[in-house]
UniProtKB/TrEMBL annotation:
Job description of the protein: Functions as a peptidoglycan terminase that cleaves nascent peptidoglycan strands endolytically to terminate their elongation.
Taxonomic placement: Bacteria, Pseudomonadati, Pseudomonadota, Betaproteobacteria, Neisseriales
Top enzyme class: lyase
PANTHER family: ENDOLYTIC MUREIN TRANSGLYCOSYLASE
Protein name, entry field: Endolytic murein transglycosylase
Length: 332
């Protein structure tokens, strides 16, 4: 009886192994070649789910389990992989494990500083790092000798960019710079009348201030209005993100009274007008807000501190002080 049970178990195991091998090694015929995109930080679970949803593989579970058995589940390289129309799950795993995508995707997030963008690009695999070690001035000179500033801050559009593997990182910078120029000049051409900007670069500076002050869609145009209204009456902008930018490496997560009083070119508590350069990489929404601030005559705003990210806007100092008492002081 025991021998018979063992025999049947062996038969079942052989059949399961055969089925597993078939699902893993036999190519699946698909209508056309397939582009498989792996995002930065994406794991094998998400990739296998997408392949299964698009019916590129026979079994997601077989691919997933095999990846874990091979130790390939945490070795994915971001980028786009071009797969032939006839491809097996095993061949897909080999492409992923080899880590040589046909294209590489790099994501730059709104509100990042240029230094953070450079760090991301310097650490992106599967591209040539021709500019690594270059100064910002040398890099900008190679991309745009006629740039409006020798400081590259804000001149590159935050977005997801896809380039061919083994391309130069200089191609990424040129693409991001060109994209920002297109977006910025479109915003400049479509801007509302009467804004206190002398040129597109000043609109870009304003957009960077808006980007760093709020990420909330409902507040962006009001924040822009506050800064525009202050510029129009010669009032200092007094915005903390500019102070932080001017502090550089001295900023350790907290602004003190002495920091607000210490003069730097970016301290809008001690200096009137816009900062000399942008303070971050603004996205599309911030550019649009800078070009189309709300018509409200707000001069102040304060965070509601309620977890929504929204701010309370005020027309005068009395309203603002009441808002501070309501939203800030009551929590201290």
């Amino acid at each position: 009886m025991l021998k018979k049970t063992i025999k049947w178990l062996l038969i079942v195991l052989i059949l399961l192994a055969a089925a597993w091998a078939a699902l893993l090694f036999i190519p699946k015929s698909n209508p056309a070649a397939y582009r498989m995109k792996v995002e930065q930080g994406q794991g094998i679970s998400a990739v296998s789910r997408k392949l299964d949803d698009d019916k590129i593989i026979y079994s997601r579970h077989v691919l997933l389990a095999t990846a874990y058995l091979m130790g390939a589940h945490n070795q994915l390289h971001s980028g786009t992989y071009r797969l032939p129309a006839n491809v097996s799950a095993w061949q897909i795993l080999q492409r992923l494990r080899g880590g040589h995508p046909d294209t590489v995707t790099v994501r730059i997030i709104e509100g990042m500083r240029f230094a953070q963008m450079r760090n991301i690009i310097d650490n992106t695999a599967d591209i040539r790092h021709d500019t690594r070690g270059w100064s910002n001035e040398k890099l900008l000179q190679a991309i745009a000798p006629d740039a409006p500033s020798s400081n590259p801050e804000g001149l590159f559009f935050p977005d997801s960019y896809e380039i061919d593997a083994d391309s130069s990182d200089l191609q990424l910078y040129r693409l991001a710079y060109r994209t920002m120029q297109q977006r910025l000049h479109a915003a400049w051409d479509e801007r509302q009348s009467g804004l206190p900007y002398q040129n597109p670069y000043e609109l870009l500076i304003m957009a960077s201030l808006v980007e760093k002050e709020t990420g909330h869609e409902a507040d962006r145009r009001h924040v822009a209005a506050v800064f525009v209204n202050r510029l129009n009456i010669g009032m200092r902008l007094q915005t903390d993100p500019t102070v932080i930018y001017g502090m550089g490496s001295r900023y350790q997560g907290r602004i003190r009274k002495a920091d607000l009083q210490r003069d730097t070119p970016y301290n809008t508590y001690t200096r009137t007008g816009l900062t000399p350069t942008p303070i971050a990489l603004p996205g599309r929404a911030a550019l649009e807000a800078a070009a189309h601030p709300s018509a409200e005559k707000y001069l102040y705003f304060v965070s509601k501190m309620d977890g929504t990210g929204l701010s309370q806007f005020s027309h005068n100092l009395d309203e603002h002080n009441a808002a501070v008492r309501k939203y800030i002081l009551k929590r201290e």
